[in-house]
Design a protein that fits this description.
Rossmann fold, 5-stranded parallel beta sheet, Methionyl-trna Synthetase, domain 2, about 575 residues, alpha/beta, ATP-binding, protein biosynthesis, cytoplasm, 3 domains
Length: about 575
């Protein structure tokens, strides 16, 4: 089985915030790390990249009188370091839309769609003040269906309906707030209507697609898919390859979606296996997982599969599109201008990055918008990490050291009691349940299994009380601690996708090494036998003793310092 993992490409005009991170890149990384344990490193490819083209960059470059690439070079380098070094994101390839391989692939792919492309005159919003044509997301107004006053030119975030700029009531340019005029211009349209029934059949029959993705895709289909313009009147982008399309570029959303394929091609070219990319895009033995925010569902559940179908190639369609709802910050939407939220270059200055990884997975908004609060974040660290997992590990390992001189006691079969059997069953079943949830894109739900096993372990110790048993039956006490040590090995493997460094630390305390070489299925086995020596034991997690007020004060200082070093585009 080949597993393709992708996260939505972050746009480089801003540093991602915590909501962006959990919506795509961090979620994809956690799943990719799980998949490598489950299916083997060589069978998993995880890609993404910086989305660099389009109007925002072009406008900013004009303001600063520089080439757009000068701005995106700096932003891409800054974001790449944050993802790869600071946040431990395990990409096989983190690339960019300015990659020559990407640009060449997009132009070649677009020519394969010509059977479904038609040229039409269209009235496009034009801002006379900023002197630019306004792409769909650069115009806002009131939704004609639900009355939402902040609807975009392509979709209403409130009711999810598909829109066009001309449908908006009181449309305004998002750059200057002025009403645009509409100018006639020629564009190339991809006729989605041809694929209406095919998309409906595919999405309805998918046994793995999440319900929120199905609902959005089917609402588009119900409205009736219509031709969508794939060209824009921007200069900063990939030149459209169609005859007569001089001066036009490919709409950033169409080209960014194709980046999933081009990034895979680029990765295998880098490692000298140029044809291997096809094993992750064609055939029955491929599963593909996309991690995105809910506002990107239509593009991944409708436009991407339609393009893949239209290409004439048998590309594998998405297996799971794991789309999160919104993460709010203390009850409000993230806002850079109003300083509401935490950005991914700020967060590591406040808490250990691996604590953040765990917090965000535990708060992942899988079924509804979720509110991040400092109170809850600190509870997760101090209660779930420290008390539930860390305290359990410390209790078990300390007793093995105290009673058996750090040597794991053997499991004596004839001394196994019903409570022992129940705990062994939890060890055997927890990784399987977690894996099944992960493969449906339910990472938060899957993470519950780690906590459940740790809590069961703590309850098991309290019930069996090996500190008392050791006085009357050393072998029976040894059984309890053997089982508990094995449960810690299971916990370390289950924790690895979320907190790789701390999982490795726990694994090493157990006297084991190279956790990344473990297999997921082996987490269900009682692998540590009697006579095994533990490693050096230390405290696994520490409580965070800080108030939300102190955090906010510290955050203000961090922001002042970062403003001096962030690239021009990201300030």
């Amino acid at each position: 089985m080949k597993i393709f993992v992708a996260s939505a490409w972050p746009y480089v005009n801003a540093v991602p915030h915590l909501g962006n991170l959990i919506g795509s890149i961090l979620s994809a990384d956690v799943f990719a790390r799980y998949a490598r344990l489950k299916y083997g490193n060589e069978n998993v490819v995880f890609v993404s990249g910086s989305d660099e083209h389009g109007t925002p960059i072009e406008v900013e470059a004009k303001k600063r009188k520089v080439n757009p690439k000068e701005l995106t070079d700096q932003a891409h380098e800054y974001d790449s370091k944050l993802f790869l070094k600071t946040w431990e994101i395990s990409f096989n390839n983190y690339t960019r839309t300015e990659s020559e391989i990407h640009k060449e692939f997009v132009r070649e792919f677009m020519l394969k769609l010509q059977k479904y492309i038609k040229v039409e005159e269209d009235e496009i919003p034009y801002c006379e003040y900023d002197k630019i044509y306004l792409p769909d997301r650069f115009i806002k107004g009131t939704c004609p269906y639900c009355g939402f006053e902040d609807a975009r030119g392509d979709q209403c975030d409130n009711c999810g309906r598909l829109l066009t700029p001309k449908m908006l009531i009181n449309p305004k340019c998002v750059l200057c707030g002025r009403p645009p005029i509409f100018k006639k211009t020629k564009h190339w349209f991809f006729d989605l209507s041809v694929f209406n029934d095919k998309i409906e059949e595919w999405i309805k029959n998918s046994p793995t697609m999440p319900d929120n993705v199905k609902a959005v895709a089917l609402s588009w289909v119900k409205e009736g898919l219509k031709p969508r313009s794939i060209t824009r009147d921007n200069s900063w982008g990939i030149p459209a390859p169609f005859e007569g399309a001089d001066g036009k570029t490919i709409y950033v959303w169409f080209e960014a979606l194709l980046g999933y394929i081009s990034a895979t091609i680029e990765y295998f070219k880098k490692i000298g296996k140029e044809e291997e990319w096809k094993k992750f895009w064609f055939g029955n033995e491929v599963k593909s997982y996309y991690f995105i925010g809910k506002d990107n569902i239509p593009f991944h559940a409708v436009i991407l599969p339609a393009m893949l179908m239209a290409s004439g190639e048998n590309y594998v369609l998405p297996t799971v599109i794991a789309a999160t709802e919104y993460l709010l910050y203390e009850g409000q939407k993230f806002s850079k201008s109003r300083k509401i939220g935490v950005w991914i270059d700020e967060a590591p200055e406040l808490l250990d990055v691996e604590y953040w990884r765990f917090i965000l997975i535990r708060l992942r908004p899988e079924e509804r918008d979720t509110n991040f609060t400092w109170r809850e974040a600190l509870r997760i660290v101090n209660t779930e990490l420290n008390d539930d997992i860390g305290n359990y590990a410390n209790r078990v390992l300390s007793m093995v050291k105290r009673y058996f001189n750090t040597e794991v006691p053997p499991l004596i079969t004839e001394k196994i009691k019903d409570e022992d059997k129940k705990m062994i069953e939890e060890i055997m079943s927890s990784p399987k349940r977690m894996g099944e949830l992960f493969e449906l894109g339910k990472l938060k739900a899957g993470s519950e299994e780690i906590l459940k096993l740790a809590r069961e372990g703590n309850a098991y110790l309290n019930s069996r009380a090996p500190w008392n048993l050791i006085k009357v039956d050393r072998e029976e006490a040894g059984n309890v601690l053997n089982i508990a040590v094995n449960s810690l090995r299971t916990i370390s493997i289950m924790l690895y996708p979320i907190m790789p460094l701390y999982a490795e630390k726990l694994y090493e305390m157990l006297g084991l090494s190279n956790i990344e070489n473990e297999s997921w299925d082996s987490a269900s086995e009682m692998k540590i036998k009697g006579g095994h020596k533990l490693g050096e034991i230390s405290i696994l997690f520490k409580k965070v003793e800080i108030t939300p007020e102190e955090i906010n004060k510290k955050l203000d200082e961090i922001r002042k310092n970062l403003e001096k070093i962030r690239p021009t585009l990201l300030r």
